[in-house]
Amino acid sequence: MMVQASQLDPSTPLGRAARSVERRSRYHASGVLVCCPPTDLAAKGVPRGDPDPSISPVQGAVLGLFLTSLVLQQTNRDFQNETQNRPERETGRERELGRKYEIESYRLPPASAVEESFRHSGWKVQRARVRAALVAANVPRGRLERFDACGGSCTVEWSPDRKQHRTRADYCGDRFCVPCMRSRGFHVRRKLTALIGDAKPLFMTFTLKATEAVLNDCINHLGESFTRLRDCKLWRRAVTGGAGVTEVKRGSGSGLWHVHLHVVAVGSYMLKADLREAWKVASRGSFIVDIQRVEDGARAVDYAGKYVTKGWSHEVADDHDSLVECVLACRGRRLLCTFGTWFNAGMETPEPGPNDWVRIGRLESVLRAAGRGEPWAVGVVTSLRCERHVIESSIDPPD
User: Which of 28, 53, 211, 363 is paired with 230 by a 20 to 30 Å CA distance?
Assistant: First the structure.
């Protein structure tokens, strides 16, 4: 039988002791410890005190039973709460299945044959080489799946405000995917047009002398040399801002790596001899440079956009080993850099436009309708082919 403190007469010593214990919940009124060892009392600053002489042995025994019941009740409640809130343990097999389910739930469906032909027919052979190089370079599985799914889940949309059609699909954004690189070049051209404005920009090309070093070391050396060049007095006096694009080539005769940096900048003109000497110091021996001022800003935009889209030369694309080394060396790098007043200008970020695109249907349905000769579908396909740049402008740039 459980005894509650409220059932005892508070005027009696037993009742007063029970009320005191209930309030303090852990200590006996006469100094007998309930839950903690006696050494804990001094550590907590609670004096033990002397036993109450008004409590008889019988009353002390009853009070001890009462305190014991309180402790057991509290211990039982704590155990139940801990058991209920404790998460269930997963076995290793269950965790493995959970990870596989999570991966499968986020996996993109591969592009169909129609979608792949519509987007990648212009570089089908080269795309197979690139995929083989990605596999040989042991890239993460997610990157390879995005590469395979590029162009999948494709739908056709119409903008009443722009009077244009476009396609929206899953795009990989890989730097070795030609259509995605073409889209990136489109965004770069549009941003350069806004940054250059009415200025007459400078074209500059910086080349490292050919060596037998691996591509990774060549790209590192090029970036470090250009950083030292921007720190020199000649550059700081002349250039206010700009952007540079790295180009990777193989020497036609030597077969060695030939790395360039193409720069579009705004500022005052520098003599070629002075720039050559500054580059020779910054690059530790390379002296091949070129500089010219461009009167037409549109030409500067096309200049930079061409190298962003180009990515790599045909000598690299046609050789499997060179392409694998290029994939490994470019992993985790930004081959497009900005500096000065153009730093962090968001060169590859798409500009916000009217959000009035209306979904017409899936690309395969539109193409089948065009194959049956339906006029509306023929008009849509003709519009998509004629406005290829609009299609690519809808591609989200890579992270």
Answer: 211
